[in-house]
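hey so i finally got around to running both of the ones u sent me last week. sorry it took forever, my laptop kept dying halfway thru and i had to restart like 3 times lol. anyway pasting them below in the order u listed, first the sequence line then the structure token line for each. didnt double check formatting much so if smth looks off just lmk and ill redo it

first one:
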Amino acid sequence: MSGEHGIPFLSSTSKNWVHFENMFTSHLSSIGESRLLDFNHVLPTKEVVIKTLNPNWVDEDVAPTSSVSGSTDPPPPRILVPKYHIVSHLESDPIVKACSPGLDKLRGETLVPYNLLNQQLIILLARLIDKSLHHLLKCPPGADPFATARGVYRAVQKHFQPQQWADRDTLRHKWHAITTCVSPQSTYNELLRVNDECNSVGVGHNAEEVATKFAHLLQTHHSTAYIG
């Protein structure tokens, strides 16, 4: 069952995680948002300047004058005190450039909050997986708002991967278990069907490998056939 953008829909028992992952990441790449799942991605930084009033500063208009009336002595030299303390530091810039704020299709480049892109990815996942899996979309308390999408995606990934490895072993065995050719047409169709299942979990065979296996199976159907 297809969801959006050619990405298959996932039920709790789906066995096509590899295909889902390939299509999902391809879609993000096509709109320039692969960074949302990249655990090495770091937001750009910006300099933040904080200016606070210096408590030792005195306004010249209200500064006290000499306390000795009629004194001809020059006033004591005044120490210049800056009016403000200025401190700067670097912090992550939460506003980023994006060409697809809704993660649906390419649009004009615009500035959006990065946490909004994270929320959009989680919403997209919610539309692509069965409601019985929506508990995987919850972010733990205190989670980094700029990395929630990565965390949620990893939770969904972990749900399917153990089963996926079991399915890979099962389908490898199923492929190797095809050892005889009952009829050329039905055997060829069976090879294609099993190979499609293998492809869905990332252990498929290319066209040459399928053709080679089929050619050798033909020998079990016709005793005079010989392929070196």
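and the second one:
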Amino acid sequence: MSSETPPSCTRLDGFSATICVACYGPHTDLAERFLSNLYCHTNPALFTLRAGLNEVAPSTLALFREHAARYGNIDLFIEPKNVFKSPLMRRMFYEKPILTPWVLWFDDDSHPTRPDWLQRLALRTEAAPGVIQWGQTHALWRTDEAIHDFISSASWFRGLPLRRGVNLDGVDAFEFRFATGGFWAIRTEVIHQLNWPDPRLVQANDDFLLGEALRQNGHEIGLFEYGVAINKAARRNAGAPEVERLPGVPLDGA
């Protein structure tokens, strides 16, 4: 892998980002794919990287330490035992202040694929300054009242009735629209406004609940998936509810 600056994206006026990635378990192949593609397609001067290493293999830790020494823009958040995604995310967001206006999140099975991906994202944020979060848009339906109770008791709940819709089986259900959790970009100030992730979260549901937290607070989600491969590995959370992708659907209304 070359350590030379990629041919494009050498400067992004008015845009800077902290990129976060969460790695878990014995999946050094995913960590290597993420790092090699990130540094191949992105100028290291344009970002800082926060790596949450959640009970990772020694080879994964060694890989990140090697990149940290080579590029000098990586902070490691090491958890010897599995603390699960949301607690790790909270540590990565709050243990050390984030000084950039944008935070980009990657699961370890997502990665950049084009040398102008970050430039394109910067242009989108400039063209639509009212959009708070960018990502690949999806919809999900839930029929259980427990999710209503969870949301209505949240500190970020503002009293808006939950959106209703018809699920894939034709059943009336609560409907959620959101950016999938494998990759997204969000304004840092909104992370703090929402105290995100919700401290009650552990492993699942963080993406669609973030979408609802944004809706409750009048924030808009925009579609962005250019130059990013999202969740490109075998599914490791087989019990998660199914979602339906919504390409190009605005997520700012009822």
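quick thing i noticed on the 2nd:
The longest helix spans residues 28-41.
anyway thats it, ttyl
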